[in-house]
Amino acid sequence: MNRRLATVTRRLLLAAACFAALAGLAAACKQQEGDRCQIDRDCADGLVCNQATQACASANSNEAIDAATPDFLDMELDPDAPVDAPDDVEQDI
User: If you ran DSSP here, which 8-state letter would residue 67 be given?
Assistant: First the structure.
């Protein structure tokens, strides 16, 4: 075999091996359930980024995926003043 062809072949095989190793590392960097995340792509397959906790969670989890509103916002609140209360500001007529 030609020496130059052998060198080129060896370099191509080495480059292909390095590319495969880097691709494997990129796939292995995904966060697992409970690990910190910012977007869904940060999490491994089958997991989504829970924005309320900023952690990877199962897509079919019972936890709220987005931030929830506090319970006190669902209560009926008393008005600040009764409807027939006098005006605070005097009116010029």
Answer: P
* Residue 91, C-beta contacts closer than 8 angstroms, at least 6 positions apart: none
Rounded CA-CA distance 88/57 in Å is 52
- pLDDT value at residue 22: 72
- Is 26 or 89 the better-scoring residue by pLDDT? 89
List the alpha helices (DSSP H) in the chain. 3-28
Listed residue (19, 17, 15, 18) closest to 7, CA to CA: 15
**Which of the listed ranges 46-50, 68-72, 76-80 does the model predict with the highest average pLDDT?**
46-50
How far is it, in rounded angstroms, from Cα 48 to Cα 45? 8
Residues paired with 23 in a beta bridge: none
Neighbours of 44 (CB within 10 A): 15
- Residue tagged 């062809």 (tokens): 5
Amino acid symbol at 77: L
Please state the pTM of the whole predicted model: 0.40
